[in-house]
Amino acid sequence: MTADDVLIRQVEREDLNECFLIEAACYTTDGATREKIGKRIDVFPEGFLVAELNGRVAGFINGGSTCKEDITDEAFKDMVGHDSSGANIVIFSLAIHPDFQKKGISVPLLKKYIELSKDLKKSKILLICKDDLIKYYGRFGFSYMAESNSEHGGFKWHEMGLLLNEDAGILSSAPC
Ligand SMILES: CC(C)(COP(=O)(O)OP(=O)(O)OC[C@H]1O[C@@H](n2cnc3c(N)ncnc32)[C@H](O)[C@@H]1OP(=O)(O)O)[C@@H](O)C(=O)NCCC(=O)NCCS
What we know:
Elements: E1 6-10, H1 16-27, H2 34-43, E2 48-53, E3 56-66, E4 88-96, H3 106-119, E5 124-129, H4 134-138, E6 143-147, E7 158-163
Parallel strand pairs: 4-5
Antiparallel strand pairs: 1-2, 2-3, 3-4, 5-7, 6-7
Helix pairs in contact: 1-2
Bound molecules: coenzyme A.
């Protein structure tokens, strides 16, 4: 398998089951429920990409759009407060099925997500991650912002952000 074999495309409702199984395999009990993932597909399919390999969903990335900078709001992951005209995209999940990890699949997936966020005229992409992925996101241009207030799953989280255009200003906690 090479990265060329991977098709990155917008999610379809039929992908729900495979996406949920991947979420559960990657995040176990901390992951989003099937209902939550279904809502993300229904409300903001433009912000939800899957990586397909030989007809199978190997991974996905999803998020919501908001004008706010508080990315620890758990209700937002349920699309409460999602505003398709908001300046920010917040990544909720990036997950590659364990069978397909370490094969380079996340790279075209995340790169395409950055491109689509630019196409949607967003100013920045925000996310929280654990310690071990700070460098990983840094390789895609994300900057470290701050330690997050999130206590999701009882872990320590870090906020990272990527400015998408020069007019977006600086990465700060000021409202957009
Ligand atoms: C993190 C994750 C998305 C990476 O996906 P992947 O397809 O396995 O990663 P890739 O094969 O595309 O790796 C790209 C690069 O990132 C590095 N990398 C991959 N996973 C990493 C990790 N957990 N920590 C640090 N670096 C990592 C790889 O070594 C590779 O570097 P290289 O090009 O120098 O070899 C995947 O492991 C996953 O789904 N994990 C569980 C869910 C998760 O933690 N998601 C992120 C939430 S913030």
